[in-house]
Structures are given as structure tokens and as C-alpha cells.
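User: Could you go from structure to sequence for me? I need the amino acid at each position, not a summary. C-alpha cells:
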């Protein structure tokens, strides 16, 4: 991707309308959500979602002029903004600042204000990011991330602002883009999915909040107090020799002495399990994995890994799955792996609750990374593999000692064969991760593992522990191993993309209903996919609808933290608007086994006895579903 400089601001023309501060402020208040969304979409995705949100708000709030100024005579095509010079001026200011924020920093020039982290707004102790969308929004975000800043701006102006190409050229030129034609040509390479730009995935005004690393904040606060006291009392002693930075690599300096904590950080006291311990153990989980890798005897590497775990320095990239504490070990952890993988040295540890992966480059400790994932309560199936390394779109796994064979399979092609993955010292050959990198979802690669108990599938969702795939009615699920189970999963594989980085433990696909279509074109399948997490909460449920001959299923409804489609409450009810080949629209609804009747209210009023309903409807209508079970329990529609 080529970066493009932002040209100097063109001089305003005397023919341009004049905008005063009051007019611009009124436009900012009225159209603030639209301007912030525009900035968020144009800002470089490499900033991360939290930084993009804060920067988008900062750039928009700084767009007000200091006095009367001329606004470019460029139309604003979206409803409610036609001919508003205040909005046109603010849009130009926001667009220019967002483009400048994507420029690389140069040694020979002072950075522009928009290239630096924003001073305001700031939210202490929280990470903010927009609500997650579906697989289509994720794919579009990935497409936009490959574009240059001006090309992203061109795509957004076309889709979000609904501007013609001539107006897009004028807006980009006014915002300082040196070559608007090149930006438009580059934007042509992204599919026109403009409706998705209004999705909650790209709405920086409707946010979710998560805490920052609470344990590190507490540690840093204690460290700051201790350092301040030490500086006030005996600052001169700071220069005396003692335990230095080098032995601990990228770890922060020691701020407290505690015998128990020091024992937990002693490489000599790491727990190491015998290679055959799992064969006689009553538990078969991560606790019986032996220590493997070519660097299990490298005490310096192990010391650095333990020290960084306890005190990650500012340069360490720390990540944790939701609900996973990231504090130091309470006692000596278990060593699962220490070795060289591709271009990194990797250490994997286990403390009974968490899997912790430390990685550093082969030639230095700069750029070290520390990843946490919950793994408590894992059984034999859950503890079959761990992600060891990701590079160039591929992933290597460390497999359990009881795994006898590994293979790669495309979940979208149930009839295709598998490709063997050689295992050397417990480490698999590289496996292409998840959806195909070319954009869209034309393949979804999963790992097939075999041991003495059978075969199972796992998929990489961007975390240390791969998610296990199952099928069947809740409470009686089983691993995906047969032809029928593979066919059940195939149309819904791409929906797994919406579950990345959510701490997912397993995903079950349950084909709960089959519905004849009103135009006699066959029968559609209703499938409920439920993602269970390691922490218990945060479950995600999708009801999906698949018509005959279709490659993918369509998400009809979704919900979080509901018992539907789960072992505690297997009942599920969902509906979808469907267009027949005749051009007529229908509301189709289906409930799981045991549904006695379905009724609708709102835009469609209908009633059906049994678990299926089909009623004529108008395009775009909204209706509410209610069902009754055989034992007269009430069921509401999912979503």
C-alpha cells in the first residue's frame, strides 16, 4: 500500500460561501455522529479500534473554525445536509485531518498534530470500541485496511456521503489529496457494499467499554508510589549497581521483594511433567502435558519469560482473552514448551487457570509479546492443541501428547479430502488460518485431530486455544467427524469470523428445523450456532437460514447471553423476510422441536399451529415473534 502525502490547503475562492463559528457549531452539533463516523472510516486501521475511536472524536471536535472562513462549494448529497456550507466546511476539515493522521512520521519534519495521540478526549481505565458487526462488515473492514488513506476517503465519500465521482474529486482536492483520480481508481478495487458503512461496526458513537489491564494498572500504581518514595528518600542510590534490566529482558524493573513471588519467577522451580505422565493420570488436560522444545534448558530465556509475565514493560505487547486475569503467577507454573519457532523464541506456560505465551525475536528482546488465555476446566477434547506461532497468515500448533495425527480441512467443502499436517516434536507444520486472505470467504481452514478416542475439528479464532466445533441438539452434542456433521457446518463456516477474540471455547451447529418454501422451490434449513466461552458469560447465539443451492447461510437473528439454543434451554425461535422467485415477500419463521404454535405481531399479523410459519409480507416490514411449547411455555423470537 503506497502512502500519499496531503497537499497544501488550496486557497479559498471569493465565490465560496462564508461560514462563521456559530453556523459551523450548529452543523457540528446536528451532524456530529456522521462526521465522527467519516473520520473513523478514513483513519488508518493500524491505529487499533480504541485509538481510532478517540482520534475520530478528537479530529471532529477540533474542526470548528476560529472565525469566519470560506467553505468550498461542494454539495452534500445525503438527506438533511444539501447546500449546508457549515457541514461542507466541517467535512473538509475532518477529512484533511484524518488523511494527515495516516501519514508516516518523518525525522526531518515536525509531526502534525493529527499524527500524535489526541490530548482530548481521554477515558482513563477503559478501552472503547464500536459494537461488532457480522462477517460482511469484518470483510469490508479488511478490504478498507488495504487501501491508502485517500482511497479509503474516496470509498467513504461515495458510499457514506453518496457523492458523485466529480464531487469526490473536488472534496479530496479541497482536503489536500494530491491525486484524487488515483484514489478513486484504487477505491474501485473494493466491492461496493456501501450499505454496510452505516453498520454499528463503524459507529464510533455507539460504543462498548472494556477495562484496561487491571492488574497492570494496580502494579503500576504501586510501582509509582514505591518509586516516588525511593526517589524522595534516597534518590542518589538509584545509580548504584544492582539487579539490572538485561537479565529480565523486556520486563519492567523490580518494585517489590517477596519470597513467594521470587520463587514463582525462578526457572529452576518450574513444574515439568514426564513425557508419559498422561498415560496413567486420572485427569487428561494441560496439566499432564510434558515440556517440549529445543530451549527447555535455556534458563536465561525462561527467566525473561517469567519476569515479563510478572512485570511486563511498556514495550511488551500484552493481549488477553475476555475474562482472563493478566497478573503474575501465584506459584511456579508448569512449562509446556520452550523453543525456536520460525523467527521467534517462544515459551508456553500453564498455571492451572491460564495458558501464557511469551515470544521474542531471535536477535533481541525488543518487540516481545505476552498473550493470556483461560483454560480452566479443560477436558481431553479442549486440551488437544495450542497456538504456538502465527506468521504470514499461517499458524503452527503445539498438540497434546495423546494426539496421533493432524490434518487440514476446508470446512466450506465437506466433500473434499484432508491434507496431512506432519507433527515434529508435538509441533505441526504451518496451517492456513481461518478464512482465505484474498477477501470474501471462499474457504475456511480448520484442523482435524485424531487420537485413540476419535476425530475432532478445531478452528483458530485469533486466540491461544483453538475453538472446538460440534454439532447436535444441545445437551447431546458431538464432535464434527462424519459426513453429515460436515455438511451441517459447511454453509455456516464463514459466520465463525464474527467470533474472533471473544474467548470462545466451543461452537455448536444444530439443524433444528426444515421448512418447505412457499414457491415450491424446495426446503430451507434452519440452523442455530451457539458459541460457548471459557468464562461462562458472553455466549453468542445465531439463528441462520439456508435455502436450497445456496453456498452460505444468512443470519436471521442473533443474541448474546441468552439460554436459547443451549443445554439449559434448547428451545429456539427465529424468523426471516424471504423473497420468492415470483417476486413476492414472505415472513418465514421456525421453532425447534416441541414448538406448538407461532404468532406474529407488528408489521405482519399471522398465526400457525406447529413449529413452522409462512405468511405474505411487504419488503422491509418488522414483526415480533412469539411461540408456545407443547408444555405451554412461552418462547420469544431470537434477537
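Assistant: Here is the amino acid at each position, in order:
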Amino acid at each position: 500500500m503506497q502512502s500519499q502525502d496531503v497537499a497544501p490547503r488550496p486557497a479559498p475562492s471569493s465565490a465560496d460561501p462564508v461560514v462563521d463559528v456559530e453556523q459551523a457549531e450548529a452543523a457540528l452539533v446536528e451532524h456530529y455522529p456522521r462526521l465522527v463516523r467519516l473520520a473513523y472510516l478514513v483513519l488508518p486501521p493500524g491505529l487499533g479500534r480504541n485509538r481510532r475511536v478517540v482520534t475520530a472524536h478528537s479530529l471532529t471536535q477540533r474542526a470548528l473554525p476560529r472565525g469566519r472562513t470560506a467553505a468550498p462549494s461542494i454539495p452534500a448529497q445525503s438527506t438533511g445536509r444539501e447546500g449546508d456550507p457549515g457541514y461542507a466546511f466541517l467535512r473538509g476539515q475532518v477529512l484533511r485531518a484524518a488523511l494527515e493522521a495516516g501519514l508516516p512520521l518523518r525525522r526531518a519534519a515536525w509531526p502534525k498534530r493529527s499524527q500524535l495521540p489526541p490530548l482530548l478526549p481521554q477515558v482513563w481505565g477503559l478501552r472503547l470500541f464500536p459494537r461488532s458487526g457480522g462477517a460482511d462488515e469484518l470483510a469490508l473492514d479488511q478490504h478498507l485496511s488495504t487501501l491508502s488513506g485517500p482511497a479509503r476517503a474516496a470509498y467513504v465519500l461515495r458510499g457514506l456521503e453518496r457523492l458523485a465521482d466529480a464531487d469526490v474529486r473536488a472534496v479530496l482536492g479541497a482536503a489536500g489529496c494530491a491525486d484524487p483520480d488515483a484514489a478513486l481508481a484504487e477505491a474501485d478495487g473494493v466491492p461496493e457494499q456501501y450499505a454496510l458503512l452505516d453498520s454499528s461496526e463503524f459507529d464510533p458513537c455507539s460504543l462498548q467499554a472494556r477495562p484496561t489491564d487491571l492488574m497492570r494498572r494496580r502494579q503500576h500504581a504501586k510501582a509509582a508510589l514505591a518509586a516516588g518514595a525511593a526517589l524522595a528518600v534516597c534518590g542518589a542510590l538509584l545509580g548504584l549497581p544492582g539487579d539490572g534490566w538485561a537479565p529480565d529482558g523486556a520486563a519492567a524493573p523490580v518494585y517489590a521483594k517477596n519470597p513467594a513471588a521470587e520463587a514463582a519467577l525462578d526457572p529452576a522451580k518450574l513444574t515439568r511433567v514426564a513425557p508419559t505422565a498422561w498415560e496413567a493420570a486420572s485427569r487428561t488436560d494441560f496439566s499432564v502435558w510434558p515440556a517440549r522444545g529445543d530451549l527447555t534448558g535455556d534458563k536465561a530465556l525462561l527467566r525473561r519469560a517469567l519476569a515479563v509475565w510478572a512485570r511486563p514493560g511498556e514495550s511488551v505487547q500484552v493481549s488477553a482473552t475476555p475474562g482472563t486475569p493478566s497478573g503474575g503467577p501465584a506459584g511456579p507454573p508448569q512449562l509446556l514448551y520452550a523453543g525456536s519457532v520460525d523467527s521467534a523464541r517462544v515459551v508456553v506456560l500453564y498455571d492451572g487457570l491460564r495458558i501464557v505465551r511469551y515470544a521474542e525475536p531471535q536477535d533481541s528482546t525488543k518487540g516481545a509479546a505476552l498473550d493470556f488465555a483461560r483454560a480452566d476446566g479443560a477436558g481431553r477434547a479442549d486440551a488437544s492443541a495450542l497456538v504456538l506461532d502465527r506468521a504470514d497468515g499461517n499458524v503452527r500448533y503445539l498438540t497434546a501428547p495423546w494426539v496421533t495425527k493432524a490434518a487440514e480441512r476446508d470446512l466450506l467443502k465437506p466433500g473434499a479430502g484432508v491434507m496431512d499436517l506432519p507433527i515434529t516434536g508435538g509441533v505441526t507444520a504451518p496451517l492456513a488460518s481461518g478464512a482465505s486472505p484474498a477477501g470474501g470467504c471462499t474457504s475456511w481452514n480448520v484442523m482435524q485431530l485424531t487420537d485413540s478416542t476419535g476425530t475432532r475439528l478445531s478452528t483458530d479464532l485469533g486466540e491461544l486455544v483453538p475453538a472446538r466445533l460440534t454439532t447436535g441438539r444441545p445437551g447431546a452434542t458431538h464432535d464434527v467427524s462424519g459426513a453429515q456433521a460436515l455438511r451441517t457446518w459447511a454453509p455456516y463456516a464463514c459466520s465463525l469470523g464474527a467470533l474472533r477474540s471473544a474467548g470462545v471455547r466451543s461452537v455448536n451447529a444444530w439443524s433444528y428445523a426444515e421448512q418447505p418454501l412457499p414457491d415450491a422451490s424446495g426446503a430451507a434449513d434452519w440452523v442455530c450456532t451457539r458459541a460457548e466461552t471459557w468464562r461462562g458469560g458472553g455466549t453468542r447465539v445465531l439463528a441462520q437460514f439456508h435455502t436450497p443451492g445456496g453456498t452460505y447461510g444468512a443470519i436471521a437473528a442473533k443474541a448474546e447471553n441468552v439460554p436459547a439454543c443451549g443445554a439449559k434451554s434448547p428451545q429456539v425461535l427465529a424468523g426471516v423476510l424471504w423473497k420468492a422467485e415470483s417476486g413476492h415477500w414472505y415472513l418465514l419463521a421456525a421453532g425447534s422441536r416441541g414448538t406448538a404454535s407461532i404468532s406474529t405481531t407488528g408489521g405482519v399479523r399471522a398465526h400457525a399451529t406447529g413449529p413452522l410459519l409462512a405468511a405474505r409480507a411487504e419488503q422491509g416490514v418488522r414483526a415480533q415473534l412469539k411461540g408456545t411449547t407443547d408444555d405451554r411455555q412461552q418462547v420469544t423470537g431470537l434477537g
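One structural detail worth keeping in mind: DSSP finds twelve helices and 32 strands in the chain.
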